[in-house]
Amino acid sequence: MGGIELLAESIGEELRRRLPGQRKTQREALALLVATMLDVRSANLMELAAALPRTAERIDMRYQWVARVLANPLIDCDVVMAPFAREVLARAARLGRVELILDQSKLSDRHQVLMLALRFGERALPLAWRVEQTAGPIGLAQQRALLDLLAAWLPVAGAEVVVLADRFYGTPGLIAACAARGWDYRLRLKSSLRVFVPGQAASVRVDDIAQQQPYLSGVELTVAGRVRTNIGVIHDPGHDESWIVAMSAKPRYLTTLDYARRWGIEPMFSDFKSRGFGLDDTQIRYPDRLARLVLVVALALYCAVSTGLWDQANHPLPAEVRPARKRPKKVARSLTSSFTRGLRRIANLLQAALRLPTLWAASG
Question: What is the pLDDT of residues 345-363, one digit of tens each?
Answer without folding.
Answer: 999 999 998 999 999 886 6
